[in-house]
Amino acid sequence: MCRLDRTSKGKCIAPSIFLPVIFFDGQVQKMNMMTNLTMRGMVSNENGKPTTTSYAIAEAFNKTHSHVMRDIKKIVKQCGEEFAKSNFGLTFENKKIGNTTRTTPFYQISKDGFMLLVMGFTGEKAMKTKIDFINAFNWMAEQLTQVVQSKWAKYNQVSLDHKTRKQQVSCSARDMRAWQDDKVVLENELAQLEMELQPQLQCLN
Fold this sequence. Notes:
By secondary structure, the protein is of the alpha+beta class. It has helices at residues 25-40, 54-60, 65-79, 81-87, 111-117, 124-168, 173-196, 198-204, and strands at residues 3-6, 44-46, 49-53, 88-97, 100-110. A five-stranded mixed beta sheet has the order 1-4-5-3-2. Helix 3 (65-79) packs antiparallel against helix 4 (81-87). It starts with a strand and ends with a helix.
């Protein structure tokens, strides 16, 4: 559970999802690209995991947020505590309405949670929106994978530099002083990378 301060209504600031069809191939391709970019803006990185929000789902499927919240609460009651905690994160935000600040809830939702939630959303437009959302989740997962792979490569290189530099140190006072300086820099960098890669490191233990 977390608390966010927002001055907006929590919705993604993006153009309309259901764009008009223009019967020119180049224009249709452009509109499809805009739709993809819009959907990608509705899926974000939350602690290394692709997620969307109940606000984004309400906007994309043209539903009221209260309707979506109602459906999520029903699922949370029925799906079991473990699945609910992993896929539906209850979050609170502060909304300022005039001179009054209200605390309102919304959910951060994983891809699995999204799939379960929208299962009952029917119709041609709903089907297209589901597919676009799934593509956006997959795109975000690919971006996160690339980031993790890049950090692993850097972690391995810094580890090798640390080991090589340590082995090269002679017993001379000059080399020892230089190593002490290098050691601090390398070990701080390793510590930072280990913290960022902690979920992956836990899987290896």
